Amino acid sequence: MERAAPSRWAPLWLLLLGGLSLLAAQGADVFMETCCADGHRMATQRRDCSLPYASESKECRMVQEQCCHSQLEELHCATGINLANEQDSCTVPHGDNASLEAMFVKRCCYCCLLGRAAQAQGQSCEYSLMVGYQCGLVFRACCVKGQETADFAPGDVGDLQEAAKVSEIEEGQEDPYLNDRCRGGGPCKQQCRDTGEEVVCSCFVGYQLLPDGVSCEDINECIMGGQNCRLGESCINTVGSFRCQRDSSCGTGYELTEDNDCKDIDECESGIHNCLPDFICQNTLGSFRCRPKLQCKSGFIQDALGNCIDINECLSISAPCPVGQTCINTEGSYTCQKNVPSCGRGYHLNEEGTRCVDVDECSPPAEPCGPGHLCVNSPGSFRCECKAGYYFDGISRTCVDINECRRYPGRLCGHKCENTPGSYYCSCTMGFRLSSDGRSCEDVNECSSSPCSQECANVYGSYQCYCRRGYQLSDVDGVTCEDIDECALPTGGHICSYRCLNIPGSFQCSCPSTGYRLAPNGRNCQDIDECVTGIHNCSINETCFNIQGGFRCLAFECPENYRRSADT
Questions:
Q1: How far is the C-alpha of 192 from the C-alpha of 184, rounded, in Å?
Q2: What was the pLDDT predicted at 15?
Q3: CA 78, CA 80: separation in Å to the nearest integer?
Q4: Is residue 221 part of a domain?
Q5: What is the DSSP string of 451-495?
Q6: Domain range spanning residue 103?
Q7: What is the pLDDT of residue 418?
Q8: Contacts of 441 by beta carbon, 8 Å cutoff, 6+ apart
Q9: Strand ranges inside 195-330, DSSP E
Q10: Does some domain include residue 113?
Q11: How many Å separate Cα 533 from the centre of its chain?
Q12: How confident is the model at residue 212 (pLDDT cuts 50, 70, 90)?
């Protein structure tokens, strides 16, 4: 019979425990149990193991990180077992299903559901070697527990070692798990551990043990202070956990996301706008606007299909021409002719009505040839030719735009070439502008617009900000210079002998108000000899004695037949 190879998680814990014993045997100054407790506390309170660890010991930080990740996986696994037992599904509420936390929760939830299904179908609770070591432990615990709440949350080192021993039992040997008083959950409502001497009950994360020692009740993190909701959010207690809910609504045009953020509703994409068929819906922040699909030129009107058609002014306008003249409709306009014998097609009477003159079908606003064509007037008619930038397609019998950028790659523009109907235009990448020839690109001197708060150096296609002495470039925007607080630097305490005062771009040293003066180097404080400078207040019968930062007046009397030497 083959045995399942334990996952790498169990040996990592065994190595960690062995490392703790070795460090303890060597008399290390770092208390490893305290370090591991700090890691557990970080996982339980902050639910984050990426925060910086405060210990100065490299070994302690290693233990803190490993214990934090172990505790965090145990918390997530316990949540997954709760989901399997309480809602019989593995949908993670109020969370990102792609996060690492959701993966741990779903893994233990699925393994527990498999164990419950095996028990319901009357199958063996001995887990398959293919599901993995940790999943097998959850599978077996939930299978034995049956339809009740699973009593095992993997992650505890002792539980893993006991389970590893069970997996190594050979065929024909008695399984000690059958004699375990915690089999099937024992007397405990959630987690049970048989120490050999007694049965100890414990609860999942988010629960606390009741005085009866076997039952568990939900912890209200919102009241007990275990929540981390942000400002503007309210804490709502849930079974075994809590969630944060936004206090105020998002307002019209916005919707609340699962992360408690407000997201704009795209009324155009969702189809909840009220734009008419002749209008196009354009989404805006919090709302939308309707704009016409097509703007027709003067003399044209939009039909029901959105196309621009000519207005027959001769029919729509009452008496468009004076008496004795006939209205003749044209593309986009109309003309008036005297009531004389009509001219042939392509001609009309002159203003005097004396002769027929050619109708210039190509004169604006008429466009009889359509886009891409050049209208050429001829007597009594007109012809259409292709404009510059177009070529005539003999198959479609139309003028097709010439893509100059594709036909002459790299030869027209210095940087980027953009094709347009009948032509093209050149553009430049960021940091450059188009030269006067409209084709080549020249560097833009960004420093001329003073983008930096202090000094600016133009480079090819960009620019670089730098700061004067005593300042440093901001890591936030890269253009602002921030004052360096020399007094707050690690060496700040050694800059001045007495007191350091930060000023913009530099610092100043100061001395006590009395008894000292600043040395010529501007950093050290020198004692003032009040006795030499004569600024003391000793009487004539006293002697001035200089001390550091001050002076003393000493009074003494000479014996009989003596006098003070200063008086001689």
A1: 9
A2: 39
A3: 5
A4: no
A5: -SSSEEEEETTEEEEE--TTEEE-TTTSS-EEE--GGGSTTGGGT
A6: 9-169+178-205
A7: 95
A8: 414, 415, 426, 428, 429, 432, 433, 434, 435
A9: 199-202, 207-209, 216-218, 233-238, 241-246, 254-256, 262-264, 279-284, 287-292, 300-302, 308-310, 325-330
A10: yes
A11: 67
A12: very high
- 42 or 466, higher pLDDT: 466
For residues 14 and 72, state if they share a domain. yes
Residue 339 to residues 55, 191, 326, 327, 331, Cα–Cα distance (Å): 107, 108, 6, 10, 21
Q: Is residue 362 part of a domain?
A: no
Q: Which of 462, 484, 506 is the last residue of a domain?
A: 484
For residue 459, give the CATH number of its domain.
Answer: 2.10.25.10
Residue reference for tokens 């407000």:
262
CA distance 190 to 192: 7
156 and 19 within one domain: yes
Helices H / strands E in the chain, number of each: 11, 34
Residue appearing with tokens 């606003």: 365
* Whole-number Cα distances in Å, 551 to 396, 420, 513, 525, 542: 111, 91, 15, 16, 12
Residue 192: strand pairing partners: 201
Q: pTM above the 0.70 mark?
A: no
**Total number of domains constituting the chain:** 5
Q: 115 CB contacts (<8 Å, ≥6 apart)?
A: 125, 127, 138, 139, 140, 141, 142, 143, 144, 145, 150
Between CA 434 and CA 368 the distance in angstroms is: 37
Instruction: Looking at the structure, tell me whether residues 186 and 121 fall in a common domain.
Output: yes
Residue 261: what residue type?
D
- Give the length of the chain: 568
Residues in contact with 377: Cβ distance below 8 Å, sequence separation at least 6, in sequence order? 358, 360, 361, 362, 363
- Answer yes or no: do 415 and 544 share one domain: no
**Model confidence over 298-320: pLDDT tens digits?**
888 877 566 788 999 999 888 88
Same domain membership, residue 77 and residue 31: yes
Residues 430 and 505 in one domain: no
57 and 157: one domain? yes
